[in-house]
Amino acid sequence: MIRRGRPYLEVRTEPADAEALQLEREGYTLIRGLFTPAEVDELKADICAVFDADPPDGRNALPVEDQEMFRYAMLNRSAAAQRAVGHPRLLAVIEPLLGEDCHVIANTAWRNPAGQPGSHGGQNWHIDAGPHVPLPAGVRWPADIPHPVFAIGVHLYLQDCAMADGPTGVIPGSHLSGRPPPFDRLLDEDLDYEGRRVEPLIAQAGDAGLFVSDIWHRRMPTQADDQGRFFLQVHYGRRDIAQRLLTTAQSNQLTPAAIARAATERERRLIGLHPPFFYDG
Q1: Between 56 and 119, residue with greater pLDDT
Q2: C or N: which end of the chain has fewer Cβ atoms within 10 Å?
Q3: Residues 6+ apart with CB under 8 A from 7
């Protein structure tokens, strides 16, 4: 656990919530009943209005029907979404791991229709960027040193998510591996890390599912009675990690002349013009 000192990060000595401790230890946690039914209804209505009013953002090469499932930068589009990402109980779990000056780096609404899992890369085992502390094969993170957390993903559930709906599955402890999931097992439902297998995040509307960016996770396969998924996703990062609410093509600190001088892909990335990837695509 950490806190922002004057001015540097330092070890936190104050007690933390049980969910924060589980998030650090296991790589995931659930906050039950974070939002009241009235708050869920308000947030759901606000986000549905955005889906109805705004076309897909067109940030990637997914098929049109898949792009229709997402709306990005939701705190820019919805007052209810902006309030939701700052819920005090949610921040009480996140801030001991990222610091009190952490910020939202991405905020995407997901609305997966029933019976249509789509072709989004989240169907495969993956990590959200990183690993932030890469380790070679055969090297284990020391058990007596808490693993640092750099980014945390959160799903704020706007409808119940049962096993049939293809919930997010996480493999507890895999955030300590320092490696991505094995590339030859990206759809393997029996994948494990040191003997621990997938834990599906079964949730009700108003719950929140949290996972650190380095944990192995995926959307589990849907079943015949799939009702779809609807949630507001929020990624929080340490102050040092750049926001991805907008792509770097949309939001950057460059002059037109500097952009024009970047002739190669490496030169573009060097000055901060990155193609959409994790968090922003």
Answers
A1: 56
A2: N
A3: none
Count of other CB atoms within 10 angstroms of residue 250: 12
Angle 267-272-273 from CA coordinates, rounded to 5°:
75
Full set of structural domains in the chain with CATH:
17-245 (2.60.120.620), 251-281 (no CATH)
Separation between Cα atoms, residue 53 and residue 281, nearest integer Å:
20
Using an 8 Å Cβ cutoff, are 74 and 91 in contact?
Answer: no
pLDDT single digits (tens) 204-223: 999 999 999 999 999 999 99
pLDDT digits (tens, 9 = 90+) for 41-73: 999 999 999 999 999 988 887 888 889 999 999
Model confidence band, residue 118 (pLDDT cutoffs 50, 70, 90): low
Q: Find out whether 130 and 214 touch, Cβ atoms under 8 Å.
A: yes
Identify any residues that bridge with 203 across adjacent strands, giving them in sequence order. 161
Strand residues in the chain grouped as ranges (E): 2-4, 9-11, 28-31, 70-71, 103-112, 151-157, 168-170, 192-193, 196-197, 199-200, 208-212, 217-219, 229-237
CA distances from 47 to 71, 150, 160 (A): 9, 28, 16
